[in-house]
Specification:
This protein is an all-alpha fold and 105 residues long. It has five helices and no strands. It has helices spanning 2-11, 14-30, 37-58, 63-75, 78-103. Helix 2 (14-30) packs across helix 3, helix 2 (14-30) packs across helix 5 and helix 3 (37-58) crosses helix 5.
Length: 105
């Protein structure tokens, strides 16, 4: 069990948490109904996966190198971290959507 938590904690950096919060807020604001949760999570996850590519490309990394680094996020950290990232997106986006609906009426 400790190995799972260690792998999960190694899989997330500060930049990753920043991207998760950014795309969760955007996706929750776009949602109009709770039935759109899967689409919102898919949008946020895809944007989370391609954002580092554009960030590295904008800061001067060659496009092929930046693309390799983007794909390495999925390969090097393993499927457990990717599944945890999707679960975090579901929880955060639904929580933000619930707060938005409750407080903006």
């Amino acid at each position: 069990m400790d190995r799972i938590f260690e792998r999960l904690s190694d899989g997330f950096t500060g930049f990753d948490w920043w991207l998760i919060m950014l795309w969760s807020i955007v996706a929750a604001l776009i949602m109009r109904r709770s039935g759109q949760l899967v689409g919102a999570v898919t949008f946020a996850f895809v944007m989370d996966m391609i954002s580092p590519f554009f960030w590295r490309w904008a800061t001067g990394s060659p496009a092929d190198f930046a693309f390799d680094l983007m794909l390495a996020r999925l390969d090097d950290r393993g499927g457990l971290v990717v599944l945890a990232r999707i679960a975090i997106y579901f929880a955060v986006i639904y929580g933000l959507f619930f707060l938005k609906k409750r407080n903006w009426r």
